[in-house]
Amino acid sequence: MGEMIKVGMADLKVVKAPDNLTTIGLGSCIGIALWDPTTKVTGLAHIMLPDSTQIRNNSNIAKFADTGIQKLLDDMIKAGANRSRLVAKIAGGAKMFNISGSSSTINVGDRNAEASRKKLKELGIRLVSEDCGANYGRTVEIYSENGNYLIKAVGKPEKII
Fold first, then answer.
1. Among 5, 13, 35, which Cα is nearest to 145's?
2. What's residue 98's pLDDT?
3. How far apart, in Å, are the Cα atoms of 50 and each of 26, 45, 79, 140, 157?
4. Catalytic site includes residue 132
5. CA angle at residue 93 from 89 to 99, to 5 degrees?
6. How many other CB atoms are there within 10 angstroms of residue 55's CB atom?
7. Distance (Å, rounded) from C-alpha 115 to C-alpha 89?
8. Where are any strands of DSSP class E within 38-146?
9. Which parts of 70-155 are beta strand (E)?
10. How far apart are the C-alpha atoms of 129 and 40, rounded to whole Å?
11. Cα 5–44–133 angle (5° rounding)?
12. Which listed residue (29, 81, 113, 115) is catalytic?
């Protein structure tokens, strides 16, 4: 068993087996895990917003789905991952505030999930499973040995996707 390395909000990290990655407190944020089953290079990004082009002074690349996923991919390739083998799993994107009306500014969670799916598709990375939506926060752990993506939520059974 390697180390469990924490990824903060608006952050991303890449490890190799036996090390693993975790991020806590995914509300409307998305935890994007990328994994290469052959080299066991594993990456996790904790993105907060869908689109960097909507924000000025967006120097934090990891904060946005569009730039964060690209940077995660680049870092993983540098670490020895093969783009054509990569698989993605995403979790989070909850609707944390129950506000009537469906203004797109409010449901950031859905938009984050959608932006993540779109960017993965653009990059040709297969999204193999996801645990998104609902109204509760999640903590996730990605295991480099087998690509298991463990989802924990208060008062819910743990699940692996």
1. 35
2. 60
3. 14, 13, 26, 19, 28
4. no
5. 165
6. 11
7. 14
8. 41-47, 87-92, 126-132, 138-142
9. 87-92, 126-132, 138-142, 149-152
10. 18
11. 120
12. 29
Assess contact for 131 and 113: CB atoms under 8 A: no
Question: What is the spatial distance between Cα 147 and Cα 15, in angstroms, rounded to a whole number?
Answer: 12
Sign of torsion, CA 90 96 100 106?
negative
pLDDT tens-place values along the chain, 161 residues long: 799 999 999 999 999 999 999 999 999 999 999 999 999 999 999 999 999 988 777 679 999 999 999 999 999 999 999 999 999 999 999 997 665 555 544 589 999 999 999 999 999 999 999 999 999 999 999 999 999 999 999 999 999 99
Cα(81)–Cα(96) distance, integer angstroms: 34
In which order are the strands placed within the sheet that holds 20-26? Answer: 4-6, 20-26, 138-142, 149-152, 159-160
| Alpha carbon separation from 90 to 4, 26, 46, 98, 125 (Å, rounded) | 18, 11, 10, 22, 12
pLDDT in the model for residue 96:
77
For residue 68, give both structure tokens. Answer: 């964060």
**pTM of the predicted structure, to 2 decimals:** 0.93
Q: Which two tokens stand for residue 91?
A: 């979790």
